[in-house]
Amino acid sequence: MPELFQVLTVEEAAARFLPRIAPIPETEVVPVPEALGRVTAEDLASPMDLPAFPRSNMDGFSVRAEDTFGATEGLPAYVKIVGEVPMGQAPAVRLNPGEGAKAHTGGMLADGADAVVIVEHTQAVDATTIEVVRPVAPGENVIQVGEDVRKGQVLLAAGQRLRPQDLGGLTAVGITAVRVRRRPRVTIVSSGDEVVPPDREPGPGQIRDINTYTIGALVREAGGIPVPLGIAPDREEALRALAERAVAEGDLAVFSAGSSVSVRDITAKVISALGRPGVLVHGISIKPGKPTILALVDEKPVVGLPGNPVSAMVIAGLFVLPAIAALLGLRDPPHRTEVTAILGKNVNSIPGREDYVPVRITRRDGVLTAEPVFGKSNLIYTLVRADGLVKVPADASGIPAGERVTVRLF
Prior knowledge:
The longest helix is centred in the last third of the chain and has 20 residues, at about 310-330. The model has no long low-confidence stretch (mean pLDDT about 95). This protein has helices at about 10-15, 165-170, 210-220, 235-250, 260-275, 310-330, 380-385; strands at about 25-30, 45, 55, 60-65, 75-85, 100-105, 115-120, 120-125, 130, 140-145, 155, 175-180, 185-190, 195, 205-210, 225-230, 250-255, 275-280, 285, 295, 300-305, 340-345, 345-350, 355-365, 365-370, 390, 400, 405-410. With about 400 residues, it is an alpha/beta fold.
């Protein structure tokens, strides 16, 4: 088992861990209204052309384009209006030379029409005749058959997370159910003699469990199902019992270990003994989060988070969320929204490690400013007061105030 603090960079740790996580093979079919945020398990092809008929893109008159050629305000083209195509109905009128029909946005064109003149480019002469003061080309102001999607075209590839617009696109072509990846079950184990459930009054030296709930919320947000298994005391046999359950019942097991070196060693020892290949990484050159554990147990990913809440959330963002994405077979890794801001205060760092600094975003004279929220990694309200994180690169000794920085928003 690797010794603690034979540290790797974040990139090295991710390269050892994430590529070895295989997508969950199980899939399920869900109705489209329930598919928001789910990940497609197969390519989805269109069963039809969309639109299935030529549609007017504007309110106006469907015409034969050649009847408008050369039209100007001084020498307009005259078109006789011989009918209307109501919305939601097939045309009941066919155009002869010099004829047109009233058209509505989204409606069908009259038979024989190949363009639409918008209302603004016409003037009424009498009840049945209009002047066209600008010519139209064939196809102008018309959405053609299949212009949006062609029959057989791949609408959404496998491994895409479904967004609201994706659901609308599926229903537009008559797809009402979709095959998606099963949500990964993420078991969560907290440990520490000092940790008690949040509904219990802490005794002397005790604290309420934070990490089960922050990590559980991150898991749910990422598309997983959090499965809290409780709090293990700082005894190897007790942690082993919960660890065995965590690996057996979850697709990904997350342990929130205590802060002492002895407890971290127990956690690494227990995880390594659960199955092969065991611990892959034990220590990352990052602050906060140096004592991170990354492992595989019988091909199931396992993450050992530091016990401090700030450290736990930072590391969860770097490794737990990408692990969930890998289990879901996402084509592209998830990206947190980022904004550029001016750093409000100096941030110091030690070269050789990545630092993640919580910041609060403020707006001054229309300019975004990132104000560092300084605090120790065991203070959860350091994160509550923050809007995101700024990364200090490993080759930097800090970032001076006034520098432009990228903020990864929570």
